[in-house]
Amino acid sequence: xxxxxxxxxxxLNCPLPILRTKKALAEMDSGQVLRVLATDPGALKxxxxxxxxxxxxxxxxxxxxxxxxxxxxxx
Length: 75
Description:
Elements: E1 5-8, H1 16-26, E2 33-38, H2 43-54, E3 57-64, E4 67-73
Parallel strand pairs: 1-2
Antiparallel strand pairs: 2-4, 3-4
């Protein structure tokens, strides 16, 4: 998956990963993809809910070695 920007929020707990993601997406153009790297287990529920609430598209979600990776497309 190609992405335009990467945001590392590893080690941060709710609500900081979502708040930083919201800020990063606001600085991006429509259609661009933001990759978020998180370690907070709550992110597994938070990011799908965030995408639904904001209209941004969660296009990929996976886990690699304890790191949760989310790819969000800016609306």
